[in-house]
Amino acid sequence: MKKKKQSKKSPKTRIEWIKKTKYTIGALFFVFGFLLYANTLKHDYTLDDFSVIKENYVTKQGLAGIPTAWKEHYRFGYWNSKASLYRPLTLTTFNIDWAIAPDDPHYAHLINVLLYGLTGLILFFALTYVFKDYNKWIPIIATALFLSHPVHVECVANIKGRDEILGFLFLASSIIAFWKYLDGKNIPWLFATAICFMLALFSKESSITFVVILPLMAYVFRKDELKNYLMPVAVLLVPALIFLIMRYNVVGGFGVGNPDVLDNALMASPNSLHAIASAISVLGIYLFKMILPFQMVHEMGYSEFTPEGLSDWKFYLSFLVYAGLGVFALTQIKKKNIAAFGILFFLLSISLLSNIFITIGVHYAERLLYYPLLGFCIAAIYGLFSLFKVPLKSTESLKVNFQKSKIPIIIFGAYILACSVLTVLRNPVWENSYTLYKADILKSPSSAKLNYHYGLELAKKGLDNKSTSDKQFLSAAKAQFEKALSIHPNYADAHSQLGLAHYRDGAKQKAMHSYERSLQLNKNNAKVYSNMGIIYFEAKQLDKAEEVYRKAVKIDPKFVDALRNLGSVLAMKGNFPESIKHFENAIKYNPDDATLHLYLGQATRDGGNPAQAKQHFDRAYQLNPALRK
User: In CATH, what number does 433-628 get?
Assistant: First the structure.
Protein backbone atom coordinates (compact mmCIF):
# COMPACT_ATOMS: atom_id res chain seq x y z
CA MET A 1 0.00 0.00 0.00
CA LYS A 2 2.84 2.35 0.87
CA LYS A 3 4.54 1.72 -2.47
CA LYS A 4 1.29 2.40 -4.35
CA LYS A 5 0.79 5.67 -2.47
CA GLN A 6 4.29 6.87 -3.39
CA SER A 7 3.59 6.08 -7.05
CA LYS A 8 0.56 8.34 -7.01
CA LYS A 9 2.57 11.23 -5.66
CA SER A 10 5.38 10.86 -8.18
CA PRO A 11 5.03 13.88 -10.46
CA LYS A 12 7.68 12.87 -12.98
CA THR A 13 5.84 9.95 -14.56
CA ARG A 14 2.60 11.91 -14.65
CA ILE A 15 4.01 15.07 -16.25
CA GLU A 16 6.19 13.71 -19.02
CA TRP A 17 4.71 13.25 -22.47
CA ILE A 18 4.74 9.76 -23.94
CA LYS A 19 7.18 10.15 -26.84
CA LYS A 20 5.02 8.29 -29.33
CA THR A 21 2.02 10.47 -28.48
CA LYS A 22 4.07 13.68 -28.65
CA TYR A 23 5.63 12.82 -32.01
CA THR A 24 2.31 11.68 -33.44
CA ILE A 25 0.61 14.94 -32.48
CA GLY A 26 3.58 16.92 -33.83
CA ALA A 27 3.33 15.05 -37.13
CA LEU A 28 -0.40 15.73 -37.26
CA PHE A 29 0.28 19.44 -36.83
CA PHE A 30 2.73 19.30 -39.73
CA VAL A 31 0.00 17.74 -41.87
CA PHE A 32 -2.60 20.20 -40.55
CA GLY A 33 -0.44 23.21 -41.42
CA PHE A 34 0.26 21.79 -44.87
CA LEU A 35 -3.38 20.98 -45.63
CA LEU A 36 -4.55 24.44 -44.56
CA TYR A 37 -2.57 25.95 -47.44
CA ALA A 38 -2.53 23.08 -49.92
CA ASN A 39 -4.87 25.09 -52.15
CA THR A 40 -2.13 27.69 -52.67
CA LEU A 41 0.33 25.30 -54.35
CA LYS A 42 -0.74 26.25 -57.87
CA HIS A 43 -0.76 29.99 -57.19
CA ASP A 44 1.28 32.49 -59.16
CA TYR A 45 3.42 35.39 -57.97
CA THR A 46 1.53 38.18 -56.26
CA LEU A 47 2.09 41.48 -54.48
CA ASP A 48 5.70 41.81 -53.22
CA ASP A 49 6.75 38.57 -54.91
CA PHE A 50 7.62 40.62 -57.98
CA SER A 51 10.02 43.02 -56.28
CA VAL A 52 11.67 40.32 -54.17
CA ILE A 53 11.69 37.38 -56.62
CA LYS A 54 10.20 37.60 -60.09
CA GLU A 55 11.69 40.97 -61.11
CA ASN A 56 14.68 40.99 -58.77
CA TYR A 57 17.86 40.45 -60.75
CA VAL A 58 19.84 39.38 -57.64
CA THR A 59 17.33 36.62 -56.90
CA LYS A 60 17.40 35.55 -60.56
CA GLN A 61 21.16 35.00 -60.32
CA GLY A 62 20.41 31.89 -58.26
CA LEU A 63 23.28 30.72 -56.08
CA ALA A 64 25.56 33.37 -57.58
CA GLY A 65 23.37 36.09 -56.07
CA ILE A 66 23.68 34.89 -52.46
CA PRO A 67 26.75 37.02 -51.58
CA THR A 68 24.94 40.14 -52.84
CA ALA A 69 21.89 39.24 -50.73
CA TRP A 70 24.07 39.51 -47.61
CA LYS A 71 25.72 42.78 -48.65
CA GLU A 72 22.70 44.77 -49.82
CA HIS A 73 19.19 45.67 -48.67
CA TYR A 74 16.13 43.50 -49.19
CA ARG A 75 15.02 44.91 -52.56
CA PHE A 76 18.42 45.92 -53.94
CA GLY A 77 17.92 43.82 -57.06
CA TYR A 78 14.65 45.56 -57.89
CA TRP A 79 15.03 49.28 -57.27
CA ASN A 80 17.87 51.75 -57.25
CA SER A 81 17.18 53.55 -54.00
CA LYS A 82 17.79 53.29 -50.27
CA ALA A 83 15.71 50.91 -48.19
CA SER A 84 15.30 49.94 -44.54
CA LEU A 85 14.88 46.15 -44.69
CA TYR A 86 17.73 43.68 -44.25
CA ARG A 87 16.69 40.00 -44.46
CA PRO A 88 19.56 38.19 -46.15
CA LEU A 89 18.67 34.68 -45.03
CA THR A 90 15.18 34.94 -46.49
CA LEU A 91 16.65 36.23 -49.74
CA THR A 92 19.13 33.35 -49.72
CA THR A 93 16.26 30.86 -49.70
CA PHE A 94 14.76 32.64 -52.71
CA ASN A 95 18.12 32.39 -54.48
CA ILE A 96 18.15 28.66 -53.76
CA ASP A 97 14.56 28.34 -55.02
CA TRP A 98 15.54 30.02 -58.28
CA ALA A 99 18.62 27.80 -58.67
CA ILE A 100 16.51 24.65 -58.21
CA ALA A 101 13.38 25.74 -60.07
CA PRO A 102 13.93 29.00 -62.01
CA ASP A 103 10.89 31.25 -62.22
CA ASP A 104 8.62 28.57 -60.77
CA PRO A 105 6.17 30.05 -58.25
CA HIS A 106 4.58 26.64 -57.67
CA TYR A 107 7.84 25.29 -56.26
CA ALA A 108 8.29 28.38 -54.08
CA HIS A 109 4.74 28.06 -52.77
CA LEU A 110 5.42 24.41 -51.93
CA ILE A 111 8.45 25.45 -49.86
CA ASN A 112 6.33 28.02 -48.00
CA VAL A 113 3.65 25.48 -47.17
CA LEU A 114 6.19 22.85 -46.08
CA LEU A 115 7.89 25.40 -43.83
CA TYR A 116 4.52 26.35 -42.36
CA GLY A 117 3.75 22.70 -41.63
CA LEU A 118 7.17 22.39 -40.00
CA THR A 119 6.33 25.48 -37.93
CA GLY A 120 3.33 23.63 -36.51
CA LEU A 121 5.47 20.68 -35.51
CA ILE A 122 8.29 22.76 -33.96
CA LEU A 123 5.90 25.13 -32.18
CA PHE A 124 4.03 22.23 -30.61
CA PHE A 125 7.27 20.66 -29.40
CA ALA A 126 8.41 24.02 -28.00
CA LEU A 127 5.13 24.52 -26.14
CA THR A 128 5.29 21.04 -24.63
CA TYR A 129 8.55 22.12 -22.98
CA VAL A 130 7.21 25.49 -21.88
CA PHE A 131 3.90 24.11 -20.55
CA LYS A 132 5.44 20.98 -19.03
CA ASP A 133 3.65 21.45 -15.71
CA TYR A 134 0.33 22.45 -17.29
CA ASN A 135 -2.72 20.80 -18.78
CA LYS A 136 -1.45 18.90 -21.83
CA TRP A 137 -4.24 20.30 -23.96
CA ILE A 138 -2.81 23.82 -23.69
CA PRO A 139 0.07 23.30 -26.17
CA ILE A 140 -2.32 21.45 -28.49
CA ILE A 141 -4.91 24.23 -28.46
CA ALA A 142 -2.31 27.00 -28.73
CA THR A 143 -0.61 25.36 -31.74
CA ALA A 144 -3.88 24.60 -33.52
CA LEU A 145 -5.17 28.12 -32.93
CA PHE A 146 -1.93 29.69 -34.15
CA LEU A 147 -1.83 27.57 -37.31
CA SER A 148 -5.47 27.97 -38.27
CA HIS A 149 -5.90 31.72 -37.77
CA PRO A 150 -6.64 33.64 -41.00
CA VAL A 151 -4.27 36.53 -40.17
CA HIS A 152 -1.49 34.22 -41.37
CA VAL A 153 -2.84 33.88 -44.91
CA GLU A 154 -0.74 36.68 -46.38
CA CYS A 155 2.47 35.28 -44.88
CA VAL A 156 1.95 31.78 -46.29
CA ALA A 157 0.02 32.40 -49.52
CA ASN A 158 2.38 35.23 -50.51
CA ILE A 159 5.83 33.74 -51.22
CA LYS A 160 7.53 36.85 -49.88
CA GLY A 161 5.89 36.12 -46.50
CA ARG A 162 8.54 33.48 -45.96
CA ASP A 163 10.45 36.06 -43.90
CA GLU A 164 7.79 35.80 -41.18
CA ILE A 165 7.62 32.00 -41.40
CA LEU A 166 11.39 31.51 -41.17
CA GLY A 167 11.81 34.06 -38.38
CA PHE A 168 9.14 32.47 -36.19
CA LEU A 169 10.31 28.94 -37.01
CA PHE A 170 13.83 29.71 -35.80
CA LEU A 171 12.50 31.47 -32.69
CA ALA A 172 10.41 28.41 -31.79
CA SER A 173 13.52 26.28 -32.32
CA SER A 174 15.48 28.57 -29.98
CA ILE A 175 12.90 27.92 -27.24
CA ILE A 176 13.48 24.17 -27.50
CA ALA A 177 17.26 24.60 -27.48
CA PHE A 178 17.15 26.95 -24.49
CA TRP A 179 14.90 24.66 -22.46
CA LYS A 180 17.18 21.72 -23.19
CA TYR A 181 20.12 23.77 -22.01
CA LEU A 182 18.37 24.75 -18.78
CA ASP A 183 17.37 21.14 -18.14
CA GLY A 184 20.87 19.69 -18.57
CA LYS A 185 23.27 22.68 -18.56
CA ASN A 186 24.72 21.27 -21.79
CA ILE A 187 26.70 24.08 -23.47
CA PRO A 188 26.04 22.90 -27.06
CA TRP A 189 22.33 23.58 -26.48
CA LEU A 190 23.15 27.13 -25.41
CA PHE A 191 25.19 27.50 -28.59
CA ALA A 192 22.21 26.13 -30.57
CA THR A 193 19.97 28.72 -28.92
CA ALA A 194 22.22 31.54 -30.11
CA ILE A 195 22.45 30.10 -33.64
CA CYS A 196 18.66 29.73 -33.95
CA PHE A 197 18.16 33.27 -32.70
CA MET A 198 20.72 34.62 -35.17
CA LEU A 199 18.99 32.80 -38.05
CA ALA A 200 15.69 34.34 -36.94
CA LEU A 201 17.23 37.83 -36.96
CA PHE A 202 18.59 37.41 -40.48
CA SER A 203 15.13 36.24 -41.59
CA LYS A 204 13.08 39.05 -40.02
CA GLU A 205 14.35 42.07 -38.05
CA SER A 206 11.52 42.17 -35.50
CA SER A 207 12.79 38.85 -34.09
CA ILE A 208 15.07 40.98 -31.93
CA THR A 209 12.27 41.40 -29.37
CA PHE A 210 12.99 37.80 -28.32
CA VAL A 211 15.99 39.15 -26.39
CA VAL A 212 13.39 40.14 -23.80
CA ILE A 213 10.69 37.54 -24.50
CA LEU A 214 12.86 34.43 -24.00
CA PRO A 215 14.09 35.29 -20.47
CA LEU A 216 10.57 36.42 -19.57
CA MET A 217 9.27 33.05 -20.76
CA ALA A 218 11.84 31.22 -18.62
CA TYR A 219 10.92 33.36 -15.60
CA VAL A 220 7.21 32.60 -15.88
CA PHE A 221 7.32 28.90 -16.75
CA ARG A 222 10.36 27.57 -14.92
CA LYS A 223 11.19 27.15 -11.25
CA ASP A 224 14.91 27.88 -11.59
CA GLU A 225 16.48 30.70 -9.67
CA LEU A 226 16.79 33.91 -11.64
CA LYS A 227 20.57 33.61 -11.93
CA ASN A 228 20.25 30.22 -13.62
CA TYR A 229 18.82 31.65 -16.83
CA LEU A 230 19.55 35.37 -16.82
CA MET A 231 23.27 34.86 -17.42
CA PRO A 232 22.87 32.19 -20.13
CA VAL A 233 20.24 34.22 -21.96
CA ALA A 234 22.78 37.03 -22.21
CA VAL A 235 24.34 34.94 -24.94
CA LEU A 236 21.51 36.22 -27.16
CA LEU A 237 23.12 39.64 -27.06
CA VAL A 238 26.02 38.34 -29.16
CA PRO A 239 23.98 37.41 -32.27
CA ALA A 240 21.84 40.51 -31.71
CA LEU A 241 24.94 42.72 -31.75
CA ILE A 242 26.34 40.97 -34.84
CA PHE A 243 23.04 41.44 -36.64
CA LEU A 244 22.69 45.10 -35.68
CA ILE A 245 26.22 45.91 -36.84
CA MET A 246 25.76 44.14 -40.17
CA ARG A 247 22.36 45.72 -40.67
CA TYR A 248 23.60 49.19 -39.81
CA ASN A 249 26.43 48.89 -42.32
CA VAL A 250 23.90 48.10 -45.05
CA VAL A 251 20.77 50.15 -44.30
CA GLY A 252 21.48 52.28 -41.22
CA GLY A 253 19.19 52.57 -38.18
CA PHE A 254 15.71 51.18 -37.55
CA GLY A 255 12.63 52.79 -39.05
CA VAL A 256 12.10 54.33 -42.46
CA GLY A 257 12.05 58.04 -41.61
CA ASN A 258 9.18 59.61 -43.55
CA PRO A 259 7.41 56.98 -45.65
CA ASP A 260 4.86 57.96 -48.26
CA VAL A 261 1.38 58.67 -46.90
CA LEU A 262 0.06 56.11 -49.39
CA ASP A 263 1.98 53.39 -47.58
CA ASN A 264 1.70 54.72 -44.03
CA ALA A 265 -1.38 56.89 -43.58
CA LEU A 266 -0.05 58.10 -40.22
CA MET A 267 2.18 60.45 -42.23
CA ALA A 268 -0.94 62.57 -42.79
CA SER A 269 -0.97 63.39 -39.06
CA PRO A 270 -0.29 67.06 -38.19
CA ASN A 271 2.00 66.14 -35.26
CA SER A 272 3.59 63.20 -33.47
CA LEU A 273 0.92 63.02 -30.72
CA HIS A 274 -1.81 62.79 -33.36
CA ALA A 275 0.17 60.03 -35.14
CA ILE A 276 0.69 58.02 -31.93
CA ALA A 277 -3.01 58.27 -31.04
CA SER A 278 -3.90 57.01 -34.52
CA ALA A 279 -1.37 54.19 -34.19
CA ILE A 280 -3.10 53.12 -30.97
CA SER A 281 -6.39 53.05 -32.91
CA VAL A 282 -4.75 50.63 -35.37
CA LEU A 283 -3.72 48.41 -32.46
CA GLY A 284 -7.39 48.22 -31.57
CA ILE A 285 -8.19 47.03 -35.09
CA TYR A 286 -5.53 44.33 -34.74
CA LEU A 287 -7.09 43.09 -31.52
CA PHE A 288 -10.53 43.00 -33.13
CA LYS A 289 -9.18 41.07 -36.13
CA MET A 290 -7.59 38.46 -33.89
CA ILE A 291 -10.83 37.89 -31.99
CA LEU A 292 -13.16 38.08 -35.00
CA PRO A 293 -11.10 37.35 -38.13
CA PHE A 294 -13.64 38.47 -40.72
CA GLN A 295 -13.28 40.82 -43.69
CA MET A 296 -9.57 40.16 -43.96
CA VAL A 297 -7.85 42.65 -46.25
CA HIS A 298 -4.21 43.06 -47.19
CA GLU A 299 -4.45 46.83 -47.73
CA MET A 300 -6.25 49.45 -45.65
CA GLY A 301 -4.43 52.44 -47.05
CA TYR A 302 -5.07 56.15 -47.25
CA SER A 303 -7.86 57.19 -47.23
CA GLU A 304 -9.66 53.99 -46.26
CA PHE A 305 -7.86 54.70 -43.01
CA THR A 306 -7.27 58.32 -42.07
CA PRO A 307 -5.45 59.31 -38.88
CA GLU A 308 -8.00 61.03 -36.67
CA GLY A 309 -5.82 61.14 -33.56
CA LEU A 310 -7.39 62.24 -30.29
CA SER A 311 -10.74 62.98 -31.95
CA ASP A 312 -11.32 59.30 -32.77
CA TRP A 313 -13.48 57.31 -30.36
CA LYS A 314 -11.61 54.20 -31.47
CA PHE A 315 -8.44 55.67 -30.00
CA TYR A 316 -10.03 56.03 -26.55
CA LEU A 317 -11.51 52.54 -26.65
CA SER A 318 -8.25 51.02 -27.85
CA PHE A 319 -6.23 53.01 -25.30
CA LEU A 320 -8.45 51.88 -22.42
CA VAL A 321 -8.30 48.24 -23.49
CA TYR A 322 -4.55 48.22 -23.97
CA ALA A 323 -3.94 50.21 -20.80
CA GLY A 324 -6.03 47.70 -18.87
CA LEU A 325 -4.18 44.78 -20.43
CA GLY A 326 -0.84 46.42 -19.72
CA VAL A 327 -1.61 47.15 -16.08
CA PHE A 328 -2.89 43.61 -15.58
CA ALA A 329 0.20 42.13 -17.22
CA LEU A 330 2.69 44.23 -15.27
CA THR A 331 1.03 43.62 -11.92
CA GLN A 332 0.46 39.89 -12.45
CA ILE A 333 3.73 38.91 -14.13
CA LYS A 334 5.41 38.75 -10.71
CA LYS A 335 2.96 35.98 -9.86
CA LYS A 336 4.00 34.13 -13.02
CA ASN A 337 0.52 34.49 -14.45
CA ILE A 338 0.42 32.99 -17.96
CA ALA A 339 -2.20 35.48 -19.19
CA ALA A 340 0.17 38.26 -18.17
CA PHE A 341 2.93 36.51 -20.13
CA GLY A 342 0.67 36.12 -23.18
CA ILE A 343 -0.19 39.83 -23.10
CA LEU A 344 3.45 40.86 -22.71
CA PHE A 345 4.46 38.47 -25.51
CA PHE A 346 1.93 40.20 -27.76
CA LEU A 347 2.90 43.73 -26.70
CA LEU A 348 6.65 43.14 -26.97
CA SER A 349 6.50 41.39 -30.34
CA ILE A 350 4.29 44.08 -31.88
CA SER A 351 6.07 47.01 -30.24
CA LEU A 352 8.54 47.64 -33.08
CA LEU A 353 5.75 47.28 -35.66
CA SER A 354 3.21 49.60 -34.03
CA ASN A 355 4.56 52.96 -35.31
CA ILE A 356 4.65 54.16 -31.71
CA PHE A 357 8.38 53.79 -31.03
CA ILE A 358 9.74 53.82 -34.58
CA THR A 359 8.12 54.63 -37.92
CA ILE A 360 7.79 51.71 -40.32
CA GLY A 361 6.70 51.60 -43.94
CA VAL A 362 3.07 50.69 -43.30
CA HIS A 363 0.43 51.70 -40.76
CA TYR A 364 -1.67 48.52 -41.02
CA ALA A 365 -0.93 45.03 -42.27
CA GLU A 366 -2.35 41.75 -41.02
CA ARG A 367 0.99 40.04 -41.71
CA LEU A 368 2.45 42.03 -38.80
CA LEU A 369 0.41 39.86 -36.43
CA TYR A 370 2.31 36.70 -37.34
CA TYR A 371 4.55 36.67 -34.23
CA PRO A 372 2.20 38.50 -31.81
CA LEU A 373 -0.63 36.03 -32.44
CA LEU A 374 1.02 33.42 -30.21
CA GLY A 375 0.74 35.76 -27.23
CA PHE A 376 -2.93 36.25 -28.04
CA CYS A 377 -3.45 32.46 -28.19
CA ILE A 378 -1.83 31.94 -24.78
CA ALA A 379 -3.83 34.73 -23.14
CA ALA A 380 -7.08 33.48 -24.74
CA ILE A 381 -6.52 29.97 -23.38
CA TYR A 382 -5.97 31.34 -19.89
CA GLY A 383 -9.13 33.42 -20.16
CA LEU A 384 -11.43 30.62 -21.28
CA PHE A 385 -9.99 28.04 -18.87
CA SER A 386 -10.37 30.50 -16.01
CA LEU A 387 -13.92 31.35 -17.07
CA PHE A 388 -14.92 27.70 -16.69
CA LYS A 389 -12.76 27.28 -13.58
CA VAL A 390 -10.56 24.65 -15.18
CA PRO A 391 -7.15 24.37 -13.45
CA LEU A 392 -4.30 25.31 -15.76
CA LYS A 393 -1.69 23.21 -13.99
CA SER A 394 -2.18 19.48 -14.12
CA THR A 395 -0.13 16.28 -13.96
CA GLU A 396 -2.87 14.16 -15.51
CA SER A 397 -2.95 12.41 -18.89
CA LEU A 398 -4.52 13.82 -22.04
CA LYS A 399 -7.59 11.67 -21.53
CA VAL A 400 -8.15 12.73 -17.93
CA ASN A 401 -7.49 16.38 -18.74
CA PHE A 402 -9.98 16.25 -21.59
CA GLN A 403 -12.70 15.21 -19.17
CA LYS A 404 -11.77 18.07 -16.83
CA SER A 405 -11.42 20.64 -19.62
CA LYS A 406 -14.15 19.44 -21.97
CA ILE A 407 -16.12 22.69 -22.31
CA PRO A 408 -13.21 25.08 -23.14
CA ILE A 409 -11.66 22.43 -25.42
CA ILE A 410 -14.91 22.08 -27.36
CA ILE A 411 -15.30 25.87 -27.63
CA PHE A 412 -11.74 26.25 -28.86
CA GLY A 413 -12.26 23.34 -31.22
CA ALA A 414 -15.24 25.07 -32.80
CA TYR A 415 -13.31 28.34 -33.05
CA ILE A 416 -10.30 26.60 -34.62
CA LEU A 417 -12.58 24.87 -37.11
CA ALA A 418 -14.14 28.21 -38.06
CA CYS A 419 -10.70 29.78 -38.44
CA SER A 420 -9.57 26.88 -40.61
CA VAL A 421 -12.55 27.32 -42.91
CA LEU A 422 -11.94 31.06 -43.16
CA THR A 423 -8.27 30.43 -43.97
CA VAL A 424 -9.00 27.91 -46.71
CA LEU A 425 -11.62 30.23 -48.21
CA ARG A 426 -9.28 33.24 -48.09
CA ASN A 427 -6.39 31.41 -49.81
CA PRO A 428 -7.78 31.51 -53.41
CA VAL A 429 -7.90 35.32 -53.23
CA TRP A 430 -4.08 35.22 -53.26
CA GLU A 431 -3.87 33.24 -56.51
CA ASN A 432 -2.37 36.26 -58.28
CA SER A 433 -2.32 40.03 -57.99
CA TYR A 434 -5.46 40.47 -60.07
CA THR A 435 -7.59 38.14 -57.91
CA LEU A 436 -6.21 39.77 -54.75
CA TYR A 437 -6.95 43.35 -55.75
CA LYS A 438 -10.30 42.45 -57.26
CA ALA A 439 -11.42 40.86 -53.98
CA ASP A 440 -9.95 43.41 -51.57
CA ILE A 441 -11.10 46.54 -53.43
CA LEU A 442 -14.60 45.62 -52.24
CA LYS A 443 -13.44 45.76 -48.61
CA SER A 444 -11.20 48.80 -48.93
CA PRO A 445 -12.76 50.88 -51.73
CA SER A 446 -11.37 54.21 -50.52
CA SER A 447 -7.74 53.16 -50.54
CA ALA A 448 -5.93 55.20 -53.19
CA LYS A 449 -3.12 52.67 -53.37
CA LEU A 450 -5.47 49.71 -53.75
CA ASN A 451 -7.39 51.46 -56.53
CA TYR A 452 -4.10 52.22 -58.28
CA HIS A 453 -2.84 48.64 -58.08
CA TYR A 454 -6.17 47.21 -59.16
CA GLY A 455 -5.91 49.53 -62.16
CA LEU A 456 -2.46 48.12 -62.94
CA GLU A 457 -3.81 44.57 -62.95
CA LEU A 458 -6.77 45.54 -65.15
CA ALA A 459 -4.33 47.15 -67.59
CA LYS A 460 -2.27 43.96 -67.68
CA LYS A 461 -5.43 41.98 -68.37
CA GLY A 462 -6.19 44.31 -71.24
CA LEU A 463 -2.74 43.87 -72.74
CA ASP A 464 -2.74 40.10 -72.29
CA ASN A 465 -6.27 39.61 -73.55
CA LYS A 466 -6.35 39.30 -77.33
CA SER A 467 -10.13 39.29 -77.60
CA THR A 468 -12.43 42.26 -78.17
CA SER A 469 -12.70 42.73 -74.39
CA ASP A 470 -9.18 44.15 -74.10
CA LYS A 471 -10.42 47.74 -74.42
CA GLN A 472 -12.94 47.13 -71.67
CA PHE A 473 -10.11 46.16 -69.32
CA LEU A 474 -8.06 49.20 -70.34
CA SER A 475 -11.05 51.48 -69.87
CA ALA A 476 -11.68 49.98 -66.44
CA ALA A 477 -8.01 50.47 -65.58
CA LYS A 478 -8.20 54.14 -66.52
CA ALA A 479 -11.25 54.53 -64.27
CA GLN A 480 -9.32 53.04 -61.33
CA PHE A 481 -6.40 55.42 -61.87
CA GLU A 482 -8.79 58.35 -61.99
CA LYS A 483 -10.44 57.17 -58.78
CA ALA A 484 -7.05 56.87 -57.10
CA LEU A 485 -6.32 60.46 -58.13
CA SER A 486 -9.68 61.65 -56.85
CA ILE A 487 -8.68 60.26 -53.44
CA HIS A 488 -5.10 61.51 -53.58
CA PRO A 489 -4.55 64.12 -56.34
CA ASN A 490 -0.78 64.17 -55.80
CA TYR A 491 -0.37 60.46 -56.51
CA ALA A 492 2.59 60.59 -58.90
CA ASP A 493 2.45 56.93 -59.95
CA ALA A 494 -1.27 57.17 -60.69
CA HIS A 495 -0.63 60.15 -62.99
CA SER A 496 2.08 58.10 -64.68
CA GLN A 497 -0.18 55.12 -65.28
CA LEU A 498 -3.05 57.32 -66.39
CA GLY A 499 -0.65 58.75 -68.96
CA LEU A 500 0.19 55.24 -70.14
CA ALA A 501 -3.53 54.46 -70.42
CA HIS A 502 -4.01 57.58 -72.55
CA TYR A 503 -1.07 56.51 -74.73
CA ARG A 504 -2.64 53.10 -75.31
CA ASP A 505 -5.84 54.89 -76.32
CA GLY A 506 -3.83 56.86 -78.87
CA ALA A 507 -4.18 60.15 -76.95
CA LYS A 508 -0.46 60.96 -76.90
CA GLN A 509 -0.90 64.61 -75.97
CA LYS A 510 -2.96 63.67 -72.91
CA ALA A 511 -0.40 61.02 -72.10
CA MET A 512 2.44 63.53 -72.19
CA HIS A 513 0.47 65.91 -69.97
CA SER A 514 -0.02 63.14 -67.36
CA TYR A 515 3.66 62.22 -67.54
CA GLU A 516 4.68 65.82 -66.97
CA ARG A 517 2.33 66.10 -64.00
CA SER A 518 3.80 62.91 -62.57
CA LEU A 519 7.32 64.29 -62.88
CA GLN A 520 6.29 67.51 -61.15
CA LEU A 521 5.38 65.38 -58.14
CA ASN A 522 8.31 62.98 -58.41
CA LYS A 523 11.17 63.97 -60.67
CA ASN A 524 13.03 60.72 -60.00
CA ASN A 525 10.65 58.31 -61.68
CA ALA A 526 12.71 56.51 -64.34
CA LYS A 527 9.69 54.74 -65.82
CA VAL A 528 7.97 58.03 -66.65
CA TYR A 529 11.01 59.28 -68.57
CA SER A 530 11.19 55.96 -70.40
CA ASN A 531 7.50 56.15 -71.36
CA MET A 532 7.98 59.71 -72.59
CA GLY A 533 10.86 58.42 -74.69
CA ILE A 534 8.53 56.06 -76.50
CA ILE A 535 6.34 58.97 -77.62
CA TYR A 536 9.38 60.96 -78.80
CA PHE A 537 10.77 57.89 -80.55
CA GLU A 538 7.54 57.28 -82.44
CA ALA A 539 7.49 60.94 -83.46
CA LYS A 540 11.05 60.44 -84.81
CA GLN A 541 12.39 62.99 -82.32
CA LEU A 542 15.48 60.92 -81.58
CA ASP A 543 17.33 63.67 -79.75
CA LYS A 544 14.46 64.17 -77.30
CA ALA A 545 14.07 60.41 -76.93
CA GLU A 546 17.78 60.06 -76.16
CA GLU A 547 17.54 62.86 -73.60
CA VAL A 548 14.75 61.30 -71.57
CA TYR A 549 16.17 57.77 -71.86
CA ARG A 550 19.47 59.05 -70.47
CA LYS A 551 17.59 60.60 -67.55
CA ALA A 552 15.86 57.29 -66.90
CA VAL A 553 19.15 55.37 -66.91
CA LYS A 554 20.81 57.97 -64.67
CA ILE A 555 18.02 57.60 -62.11
CA ASP A 556 18.00 53.80 -62.32
CA PRO A 557 21.11 52.25 -63.91
CA LYS A 558 19.48 48.80 -63.60
CA PHE A 559 16.32 49.75 -65.54
CA VAL A 560 16.40 47.22 -68.39
CA ASP A 561 13.69 48.82 -70.56
CA ALA A 562 15.42 52.21 -70.50
CA LEU A 563 18.81 50.65 -71.25
CA ARG A 564 17.36 48.75 -74.21
CA ASN A 565 15.54 51.79 -75.57
CA LEU A 566 18.55 54.05 -75.14
CA GLY A 567 20.71 51.48 -76.88
CA SER A 568 18.24 51.31 -79.78
CA VAL A 569 18.14 55.11 -80.19
CA LEU A 570 21.93 55.35 -80.13
CA ALA A 571 22.21 52.57 -82.72
CA MET A 572 19.80 54.43 -84.99
CA LYS A 573 21.98 57.52 -84.61
CA GLY A 574 25.08 55.49 -85.51
CA ASN A 575 26.65 55.58 -82.04
CA PHE A 576 27.33 51.84 -81.96
CA PRO A 577 30.01 51.70 -79.22
CA GLU A 578 27.75 53.36 -76.65
CA SER A 579 24.74 51.46 -77.92
CA ILE A 580 26.58 48.18 -77.35
CA LYS A 581 27.54 49.28 -73.83
CA HIS A 582 23.88 49.88 -72.87
CA PHE A 583 22.71 46.58 -74.37
CA GLU A 584 25.43 44.76 -72.43
CA ASN A 585 24.37 46.48 -69.21
CA ALA A 586 20.76 45.49 -69.81
CA ILE A 587 21.76 41.87 -70.39
CA LYS A 588 23.64 41.89 -67.08
CA TYR A 589 20.34 42.45 -65.29
CA ASN A 590 18.20 40.29 -67.60
CA PRO A 591 20.50 37.69 -69.18
CA ASP A 592 17.71 35.57 -70.65
CA ASP A 593 16.06 38.31 -72.73
CA ALA A 594 16.36 37.07 -76.32
CA THR A 595 15.48 40.47 -77.80
CA LEU A 596 18.36 42.13 -75.96
CA HIS A 597 20.82 39.60 -77.39
CA LEU A 598 19.36 40.18 -80.86
CA TYR A 599 19.75 43.96 -80.56
CA LEU A 600 23.28 43.54 -79.24
CA GLY A 601 24.07 41.34 -82.21
CA GLN A 602 22.69 43.89 -84.64
CA ALA A 603 24.60 46.77 -83.02
CA THR A 604 27.82 44.72 -82.96
CA ARG A 605 27.40 43.75 -86.63
CA ASP A 606 26.57 47.28 -87.75
CA GLY A 607 29.47 48.53 -85.66
CA GLY A 608 31.86 46.50 -87.80
CA ASN A 609 32.34 43.23 -85.89
CA PRO A 610 30.24 40.53 -87.66
CA ALA A 611 32.23 37.64 -86.12
CA GLN A 612 31.42 38.70 -82.57
CA ALA A 613 27.87 39.56 -83.60
CA LYS A 614 27.26 35.92 -84.53
CA GLN A 615 27.72 34.88 -80.91
CA HIS A 616 24.99 37.26 -79.82
CA PHE A 617 22.66 36.16 -82.62
CA ASP A 618 23.20 32.50 -81.73
CA ARG A 619 22.34 33.23 -78.10
CA ALA A 620 19.20 35.13 -79.14
CA TYR A 621 18.04 32.24 -81.36
CA GLN A 622 18.80 29.74 -78.61
CA LEU A 623 16.56 31.66 -76.20
CA ASN A 624 13.86 32.28 -78.80
CA PRO A 625 14.07 30.29 -82.07
CA ALA A 626 11.20 32.36 -83.52
CA LEU A 627 13.59 35.32 -83.86
CA ARG A 628 15.32 33.59 -86.81
CA LYS A 629 12.39 34.66 -88.95
Answer: 1.25.40.10
